[in-house]
Design brief:
ten-stranded mixed β-sheet, two-stranded antiparallel sheet
Length: 323
Amino acid sequence: MPFPVHRMRRARATEPLRRLVRETHLAPDDFILPLFACSGVGVRRAISSMPGNYQLSVDELVKECAEALRLGIGGVILFGIPETKDEQASGAYADDGIVQQAVRAVKRELPKLLVITDVCNCEYTSHGHCGLVVDGEVQNDPTLEWLAKAAVSHARAGADMVAPSDMMDGRVGAIRKALDQSGFPNTPILSYAAKYASVFYGPFREAAESTPQFGDRRSYQMDPSNAREAMREIELDLEEGADMIMVKPAMPYLDIIRQARDRFDAPLGAYQVSGEFSMLMAAIQNGWLDRDRAILESLTSIRRAGADFMLTYFAKDAAKLLA
């Protein structure tokens, strides 16, 4: 029927009506809060490019986790800043590594909180790359051993799930085999399956002290121009045993999230990365964007694209807004 029989504005007239017909919903348990663990006691070292985020000693990190649990946030993902780094990334898979210490402390105090660990090497290598470097090139297959050892050490410490983010070929299969052989067949793998070589990681590299000392990561992270390749990456990781998959970054790659949702039935996450957070925060602090609406609209866009859950530095703020 022609206008005015169909008036789409009728269902938008009031907030109760808008709530009634709302298609996409956010809840605190959709969010995973990234946290950065460092050595020391009582340390809350501000990250200048990420307002409100800190490098945290284990005792302070436990406090953040307690707040996350109280707010109903879905879980946390832990990154580590070791006291020393070397060419072998030994801090990544040491049983007394900083992430392993943090996992034990959190699970001891907050056993009901979901704790995920990032499995990578860039924070632990002296050169800042994600694997073994020989003659200036990152070696794929030798790096798999480091990743497998790190995943097992995290599981042994009590991690509920491990999340490899390195983008080495075959790492999901290597980690799955190592976990199974080490007595952790029920530890799931959340694979950073489609991780792009993005400019939006800049602030994270300050937070994690992981800037490459030479070159870049384009030989192993994905080309931002490619979409079909992302589907192949996801397919291979699922074949190797990934239980969940992730697209990273989120907002510049909403089309990739939608394609992955339409093609794969596995649980799908997306990482609203540091650059996305810092970009929005800069606009918010300059008064160019309304804080609350910017936070929720950005997260809604990721959820609407098809993500089941989101890793976001806005997790606490969003949970409070949704309370």
